[in-house]
């Protein structure tokens, strides 16, 4: 009888381990205790759809995603940290992050993103840190940051920005540090930084401004 109980317990334990293992995408490393999934440098071309729903941190650095499609993270609504560095990203479609209302840190550095589309960051209502440095951003469409009311840090250095239009950063009422270093900015609209009431630090070094933008910075 004792042997039978041990056998049944062992079988159930093996089944449980198999179920847990099945929640981890192939070629990824998962930590069930910390609720983290790492799929670094695995040549992935799509966001894995088998990531456990309760995952908090997802690391996808060094893959080949190229395009983030609408609803790319529908299956991971509890993410707080998402790292997409060096993924060859060119386009972030509208609604790509729409279900990530708990995300606080998003790293999109070292990609090939050229345009920040309107509604590209919709749904990121809790985001505090957005890293977009070392891309090819040359255009920020009106309303691109409208949903990022809690953002503290926006890193846009080492891109290809030339001109900042009026209300370029509309919606960032809690931004504290805006980094625009190492672009090609030569002109700032008078209302380029309008609405940034909490801004405490602005980095504009290594651009092509021909004169100090007194009017813009006064506002």
Label this structure with key terms:
alpha/beta; Leucine-rich repeat, LRR (right-handed beta-alpha superhelix); two-stranded parallel ribbon; 219 residues; elongated; disordered N terminus
Short description:
This protein is of the alpha/beta class and 219 residues long. The protein has helices spanning 2-22, 214-218; strands at 29-31, 36-38, 57-59, 67-68, 81-83, 91-92, 105-107, 115-116, 129-131, 139-140, 153-155, 163-164, 177-179, 187-188, 201-203. It has a single domain (29-219), classed as Ribonuclease Inhibitor (Leucine-rich repeat, LRR (right-handed beta-alpha superhelix), Alpha-Beta Horseshoe), CATH 3.80.10.10.
Topology summary:
Layout: H1 2-22, E1 29-31, E2 36-38, E3 57-59, E4 67-68, E5 81-83, E6 91-92, E7 105-107, E8 115-116, E9 129-131, E10 139-140, E11 153-155, E12 163-164, E13 177-179, E14 187-188, E15 201-203, H2 214-218
Parallel strand pairs: 2-3, 3-5, 4-6, 5-7, 7-9, 8-10, 9-11, 11-13, 12-14, 13-15
Antiparallel strand pairs: 1-2
Written description of the protein model:
The strands form four sheets. Strands 1-2-3-5-7-9-11-13-15 form a nine-stranded mixed beta sheet, with no helix packed on it. A two-stranded parallel sheet has the order 4-6. The chain contains two helices and 15 strands. The protein has one domain (29-219): Ribonuclease Inhibitor (Leucine-rich repeat, LRR (right-handed beta-alpha superhelix)), CATH 3.80.10. The protein has 219 residues and is α/β, with parallel strands linked by helices. Helix content is 12%, strand content 18%. It has helices spanning 2-22, 214-218, and strands spanning 29-31, 36-38, 57-59, 67-68, 81-83, 91-92, 105-107, 115-116, 129-131, 139-140, 153-155, 163-164, 177-179, 187-188, 201-203.
